[in-house]
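Here we describe the complex-level prediction in full. Unlike the single-chain runs in Section 2.1, the two entities below were treated as one system.
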Amino acid sequence: MAWLGILNYWIFVLLLMTGMYAIVAKGNLIKKLIGLGICQSAVFLLFISMGKVVGGTAPILDGSDRAYSSPLPQVLILTAIVVGISTMALALAVVVRIRESFGSIEEADVYGKEAEA
Amino acid sequence: MSLLFSVILVSFLLVVAVAVVRTTNLFAAIMLFAIFSLLAASYFFTLDAADVALTEAAVGAGIATVLFLSALALTDDEEKPDPDRRPLLTFLVLALMAAPLLYLGFWQPDFGGATTPVQQHVTPWYLETTPEAIDIPNLVTAVLASFRGYDTLGEVFVIFTAGIGVYSVLGMPKRGGAHSASSAAAWLYGIGHHAVPRVVAKILIPFIVLFGLYVQFHGDFGPGGGFQAGAIVASGIILYALIEGGNAARAVLPVQALLRMAVIGCLTYAGVGVATLLMGGDFLDYSVLSADPVAGQHLGILLIELGVGLTVTGILLLIFHAFAQRETH
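The structure predicted for the assembly as a whole is:
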């Protein structure tokens, strides 16, 4: 089943690139933030898939002698998700202020207004 | 077989991500991004990460969508084409970046293998040490709250700081029900005149909050803990705010109370650390809290999870109110 692992990993790479494409090639600030969110998720997915053991179960001990998936990547990603939404909220707040100051959330318009001023 | 299912799920994620990037309607993009989060949560669940799936579903599909939509209500919902962008060049540069990463895929550790680096010494150590040192079944909670408690303390303060940051940028929400005519009426008075959402929400909200409390206090034994509980309780109250309006939600939980919750949460967590120092242990070493080290660990984890839950609920709701109360221009 090695090909399945390679395919799984390739999808994370493609997801990361999809997110990056939105950050670089789109001028809309909210679209850029969504792209950042996709990049972030690609990393989360990679981390979680690393801890999986075939035939294992969630790392909640029940006294039996079965295999458990690794808890460590799960802990790191669990906190990262909540921190991620807080920082995303901060970025959205900045976008809202940019809209109020420049009347647009398109990067080109914002640069244009700034050059005029 | 289950791995194949996971890989199919993650392929859906790629399709949705491409759709998100391609659409020029931002409302559609945000909705697709919510579906993306829900698919990611299912993927986490198939990979045995129940705690992470719970958090992703509440935070990614729930709260993130509401925040994006409330930011969208204050801006424009159509993306304008920008002729100065060079999509082809971007694509080529990213393809160049992707090539080595894809090539490295052939040397990845076996997906789901029992002999991958992650499973070599770190995981067995946690599996063996946790039952004797902490004695709670949920390893994720044990690692999060005790073994890596210092790390988690930092993350709670990052969340607190982000909340303060949102307020520095958007301004404090008004404490009373004061508002001006230009405010978006739906955010203030809700959509309570629509019968179906109102009835459904009325039935759901008590159970959402109850489930949040269960996740908070049962986190040692099953999937759960302060982060998940905080996000679930906050999403329950945000649902109330969406139906009955921000003013009604602030009457239940005033901004002042939310601020206190966030501050008390942070102080509880740090205070437990200081208490262990004063009682002769290391910072956040809960074993000294009680005569029996294992009972001390249980007490410490309960207290700091409570702190995490209070801070996460408080800050997420404060951020929501900051966006919801902002006037449209």
